[in-house]
Structures are given as structure tokens and as C-alpha cells.
Amino acid sequence: MAGDIRQAYLEAADAAVELLREPEVAERWDEPSALDRLSVGGLAAHLATQIVRVSEALEEPGEDPIDLLENYRRSPWVLQDPDHESNANVRKRSEEAADRGPAEVAARAADLLGRQRAALAAEPRDRVVRLPWSGWSLRLDDFLLTRMMELVVHSDDLAVSVGVDTPEPPPSVAGPVVDLLSRLAVQRHGVTAVVRALSRKERAPATISAF
To answer: Bias regions of kind Basic and acidic residues — which residues (predicted)?
Structure first.
């Protein structure tokens, strides 16, 4: 399973880097994105940051990892509105990162991803990493799954923002990501709401969004 998740992360990250290199992204860099109060450049930089975070985490030995879903229960941005400080800070950092320009943002992500291929293959199956931006630890493969989800979701955001086709994730990526989003939706809305949304349009709730 460890090898599967690590390879799937690399596939998702490869697709994200390809999207970052699309000429439409550079052409619309300073325009508003599909996400409120975030430019295309800011969104692209946030997408690239998911790859950066993996390199940062690999430098941090962790201890006493928490559960994957507990990671989201502890994260302040998950249930907050866009005006919350945690989300405002993400937008601010993303726009600052976008100041590097489209070529540098894409090149940095590609360079880090290239280094991660060998690094991930060499990590033990039970590797734990500390997330310096949160203060707790996750199993490496759980952390990579969180990045896969972010890469898939924000690749869609970016593709929609610049008018290109959303990259279609392969089953090796789509399966774990949809599973994680489903578990987060159940955590937020309950099993009954999710079952109804997926099976009974006459009783489906207005939303079962994970976030």
C-alpha cells in the first residue's frame, strides 16, 4: 500500500505540474480565479505549494502520529468561512508566492518533484513526518494522501479558472481521493446525509461538501 500511495501522489503531482505549465495559466496569471479573492497566479502558487509541503515534511522527523481524520478535525480552516484568519492567511501567502511569476512557480514545483521521486522510494513504510506548519505528525502515506486530495481539487479549480480541461486523475489517484473526501463528508454531515445524496435525489440534502 505504501508504494501505491507514493506512486499515486507522484502521478497527481506530475499532472499538476503539467497544468501549471499550460500557456493559459501564464496568460491569465493576474486575473481573478474561480475561487473568491484569489488570482489565477495565487491559485497556481497554492497548487504548487502542495508539492513544496511534501519536501518540507520530509525534512522533519515525526513522532506519535495522529489519525488522518483527526488531522482535519484539528485544522482550523476546514469548517471556517473564507473570511476566517486561517483562510485569509492562505490567500495572502499564495499571492505572495505568485509574485515569483508563472515560470518560476512551475519550475520550482517540477524541481522539487524530481527530487521527491528518489526520496519517497527510499523512505521506510512506517515513516512519520512532522508538519511544521501545524505542529503535529502524520504517517507519511497519510500526509501524501492529503496532498493528493489538494492537488486534485485545486487542479480542477485552476483548470476551470483558465478555461482548459480538468486533468482526469487515473484510478490510482481518484480512488483514494474520493474515499478521503467521502469520509470527510460523513464526518461533517453524517452517514445518512451522504447516503441520501448518493442514492435518493428526492431526499438528498442541499450539499454534502467535505469542506
So the answer is: 81-102
